[in-house]
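subagent[fold] <- orchestrator: predict structure for attached chain, return tokens only, no commentary.
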Amino acid sequence: MQPDTSVKRVLIYRLGSLGDTAVALPCFHLIARAFPSAQRILLSNFPIHAKAPAAAAVLDGSGLVGGYMSYSTGSRSPIDVLRLIGKIRRFRPDLLVYLAAPRGEKAVRRDALFFRLCGVRRIIGLPAGDLATNRFDQVTGLWESEAARLLRSMASLGDADIQDPRSFDLRLTDAETAKATQLLAPFEGRPVLACGPGTKMQAKDWGQDSWRQLLALLHSRYPEHALALIGARDDSHAADYAAAHWGGPKINLCGSLTPRETAAVLARATLFLGPDSGPMHLAACVGTPCVIAFSARGLPGVWFPAGPRNLVVYHQTTCHGCQLETCVTENRRCLTSITVEEMAEAASRLLSSIR
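subagent[fold] -> orchestrator:
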């Protein structure tokens, strides 16, 4: 499909966290190809007291969007609603690309009506009918990835290959890659294992002792490797605990890097180890193979890391798909049943295939 130069202003509606933005990268690339000369603004939720949405941590510097517009999730304030209507009307979008997660037909119709009231005449991507659900693959036993479902909703803009690594290109800057090179320079060319054991969601937590045992076992098997620990500042203590028995070179970068700088570090790693998390998606975006202790709170496949070189350890318990953030009845059985040896074997398989 030829680029559409008649569209001058595109408003993209996507809420969520770092991971939600990462899985939507193929859509952002497709929008940029379809409307290369248009001003592209992202309407997204801003964390409290933040000057930018979580999406900015992934998109800033990529050139895929040119700015952000704040959306107050859950707000019932008429003043907030009127302010948002005013912002959108002043922007005068020729097109709205709807990338919000499906919330039922009633919510989608309400959103469409709202944007019509804002003066938007053309909307694509509304998740209705088959577009609102992830398809099930009888052969693999996996559900369609969220990235693929989002792309299906945008088929009118052209084709995008979900298997092409360029679809997830973060377009890291020279400064970001240079910082990663500088930080890993003390490792003197050793291969690097990256690990991000932290998670803010109890239902995704494999357990600090499990990560500690896994890293100790991997160090005994691969003593030539260095270890880079990544995550948010709040993950620093958990990372130190996990790496307590790593006898080789290591560095704790938790809280000292932006997400994009973290991605640049991950791009230089041989392997990433962690739970279902934002860093997992960043590692997948830069093509670093992942070994993931994945909870069964979601359907298998929907939020798995993108790419063919990942090994996801997912135990499909009877309670899978619960969507719980805190597991109080099953004591995270889907995760606690994953053994250290199981994760170590998955890491060894990937490392063997890389060599």
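orchestrator: received. Logging for downstream: The chain has 13 helices and 13 strands. The first strand starts at residue 9 and ends at 13.
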